[in-house]
Prior knowledge:
By secondary structure, this protein is of the alpha+beta class. The chain has helices at residues 2-11, 27-34, 44-57, and strands spanning 20-24, 60-64. A two-stranded parallel ribbon has the order 1-2.
Amino acid sequence: MAILHALRLFSVSTYSSSHLIVESNSRVALSWINCVKRRPWDKWHIFNEIDSLLLSVGDVSFTHVFR
């Protein structure tokens, strides 16, 4: 998942104390990030890591962009 890779890279970068804006053209992926109840059960290990990275990075916002 691209969002996971972006958070991994950002968390180890020298910019990790800055604000991160993640843009995605997938409303489904953004709904999975924003609403725990919508997450697929078989991907919980991915979302656990995403949640952990979001807590460690801190200032992250997600935005939907159209194709």
